[in-house]
Design goal:
It is built from eleven helices and twelve strands. It has two domains: about 120 residues, Aldehyde Oxidoreductase, domain 3 (Alpha-Beta Complex); about 150 residues, Alpha-Beta Barrel (TIM Barrel). A six-stranded parallel beta sheet has the order 6-11-10-9-8-7. A four-stranded antiparallel beta sheet has the order 3-5-1-12, covered by helices on one side. A two-stranded antiparallel ribbon has the order 2-4. By secondary structure, it is α/β, with parallel strands linked by helices.
């Protein structure tokens, strides 16, 4: 994982948020060049994501902290398993602990939920993809966590592809008009995706030359009918109303992609802790 300037700035912001006035408890209880060793442990079954970010939090403090990672991002980890050993100045370990864990717990939570969804559609031809429903400022990290869970990334930003949604269609006067405008203005290397919700819109989008159809808020039965109507003339993505309980039905309906905003906005932080074991 590449630590971008944006990620480093996000880490600095998180540290400032937690330590703007210093760590008064650690300052009062730890003196001198006291050093300690700690272990980071998964308290439940998880898919790991965020090791480089966890380590970077301590690095941003400019302290001599060393790490021995026993597992890598993307690894499934059973509960009560030690993820890594951390050694360094005790004050640094104590002060940066929560910020570092917040990143690791959040990203591992996304990877864990993603892997659960990917496993649910195993054996089909369907890929699980994320959306732009990400935490502001965290998109690079959250989409990385999706990949660590075995999912794929949809657009990273509005500049990454043409996706004509209902509001674009309304504002431009219709699907045909919106697709024609996209074909005229977008780079020739860009595929054009159109959001549709019924058979008439599917037919209009295909006739207009759409490359991908986003079937929005349809039932699995409606999806199966739509896939038959499309007949391989465009790639098919399903979105809206899809949960872990029904994701397999949507995959078996024959779509190429299932996009889930819940991979990022619905994932909970998993339980990971860091305990000092020796001074």
């Amino acid at each position: 994982m590449e630590l971008t300037a944006h990620t480093r700035a996000l880490i600095d912001l998180a540290l400032m948020e937690d330590m703007s006035g210093g760590d008064i408890t650690t300052r009062a209880t730890i003196t001198g060049d006291h050093r300690s060793r700690a272990v980071v442990t998964a308290k439940e079954d998880i898919v790991l994501a965020g090791i480089p970010v966890f380590q970077a939090v301590f690095d941003r403090l400019g302290e001599d902290v060393s790490f021995n990672a026993r597992h890598a991002d993307g690894d499934p980890i059973q509960g009560k398993t030690v993820i890594m050993d951390v050694e360094g100045p005790t004050a640094a370990l104590l002060s940066a602990e929560r910020t570092a864990l917040n990143f690791l717990m959040r990203l591992s939570g996304i990877a864990t939920l993603t892997r659960k969804c990917v496993d649910a559609v195993a054996g089909t031809e369907t890929s699980v993809v994320d959306t732009r429903k990400t935490t502001p400022g965290w998109r690079y990290l959250e989409k990385y966590a999706v990949r660590m869970g075995g999912g794929r990334n949809h657009r990273f930003s509005l500049s990454d592809g043409v996706l004509i949604k209902d509001n674009h269609i309304t504002a431009s006067g219709g699907i045909s008009e919106a697709v024609a405008g996209a074909k005229q203005s977008a780079p020739h290397t860009s595929r054009i995706e159109v959001e549709v919700s019924n058979a008439n819109q599917i037919t209009e989008a295909l006739d207009a030359g759409a490359d991908i159809l986003l079937l929005d808020n349809m039932t699995p039965a409606d999806i199966a009918d739509a896939v038959a109507l499309i007949g391989g003339r465009a790639l098919v993505e399903a979105s809206g109303g899809i949960t872990f309980a029904n994701i397999r039905e949507y995959a078996e309906a024959g779509v190429d992609f299932i996009s889930l905003g819940a991979l990022t906005h619905g994932a909970r932080s998993v339980d990971i802790n860091m305990k000092i074991v020796a001074a």
